[in-house]
Amino acid sequence: MNTSQKTLEAVLDTISPIWLGEMDSIRLMNRIDTKFLTTERVLAGILEDAAARGYRALETEGTKISSYDSLYYDTPELQMFLDHHNRRLVRQKIRTRVYVGSGRTFLEIKRKNNHGRTKKKRTEICPEAFGDFRLDPAATALLEQYSAIPAAAVSPALETVFRRITLVDAAMTERLTIDTALCFINHRTGREVSLQDAVIIELKQDGRAKSEMRDILLERRVKPVRVSKYCIGETLTDPDIKHNRFKPKIRLIEKTIDKKLTAI
Question: What residue ranges define each of the domains in the chain, with the CATH number in brackets?
């Protein structure tokens, strides 16, 4: 574990825990998401401010930093990537996700409407279906019901592995996910790239309640940014795809961390 990760864990020790069973009231499956970009060094201060304002951190399997592994599916032509690149307001993403600590695995379908709201449908699947959700009948049934793209038309495209911190405000009106140690593995090109010490924060809320976290981020000079982990990962690991729209996002990440991002 590197020094910055040790620092984050030390700060997290000062934040009161919240358990999965307590979070049912703030699942926010129909929500507005706002993303922010920062570094692990700045994140340590954000967590200190959050602790002072009564935020709690999700604790599972005895830790407040959980490992995730997500696999995004797409068509051979990368239709879902291109829908995002071409600014289609109505779009979707399909992924399998495993919570590494518990081994629980899900198929998730995220759909964004033309009002900017995101709806997520998911079903738990057998761990063996992580690399091909069609091995699980429940996953195929969910896709047939909620996806505009049939199961037979998609295959694994990009895997993302990362560590996540989840915070909940004292009023239980918002959830914050904080992703660190992000790495992308392209299943079609074989390329891999790490975002190094970049941190992607996502504030999830229904839009009606005031957010103390927005104030914290403003005070720390962390600004909103529109960024998709799937699209950034594809852009960094597949030089042949159309990605002009995402080049400025890559430059912003590089400027934020003061490092060059290169695939291996």
Answer: 3-257 (2.40.320.10)
- Is the pLDDT assigned to residue 180 strictly greater than 80? yes
CA torsion, ordered 98, 101, 103, 109, to nearest 10 deg: -20
User: What gap in Å lies between CA 118 and CA 35, rounded to an integer?
Assistant: 13
Q: What are the pLDDT digits (tens) for 196-245?
A: 999 999 998 766 667 899 999 999 999 999 999 999 999 999 999 998 99
* Count of beta carbons in the 10 Å neighbourhood of residue 257: 19
pLDDT confidence of residue 8:
87
Q: What is the pLDDT of residues 247-259, one digit of tens each?
A: 999 999 999 999 9
Sequence-distant (6+) residues with CB within 8 A of 42 are 199, 220, 222
Q: What is the average pLDDT score of the chain? A: 91
